[in-house]
Amino acid sequence: MKNIKFYEPKKYEDSSKYEKVAEHIYRTEDTFLGGDMYVTSLKFEQEPEFDEGDSPSNISQYPLEDILDKYFVSISDFYDEENRNSASVCYQEFSGSDLENVKQLTKIVGKHVYEKEYLDEEDGEMYLTMVIE
Length: 133
What we know:
Radius of gyration: 16 Å
Shape: globular
Distance between the termini: 11 Å
Structural class: alpha+beta
Number of strands: 8
Largest sheet: 6 strands, antiparallel
Helix content: 10-25%
């Protein structure tokens, strides 16, 4: 993933469902579990040369899954229309119940995130690890 930037959808400004609590972070109600949910939206480009998807309609599982695990967040909106109308930029909303986790997630903006293979010297197997630089 490269060219990671904030995305400010109109729904954040046009709805009483969202309250801005930090730069690019909004509080909303978790309609599934109840309680507060914190959301932010990002846009990014995938890198097929790192085995990522080749279009916004084909967003790859990795490194996205590792990002979700690292920051204890989930995808709460896929922005289907934006992704369908874009040739290369992907749009996703991330949500979490802990404001600090979402704040940490926003630190990937402007960074390069990808999967890299490494050899585990103990078992001799190749594994993937997420790199943020």
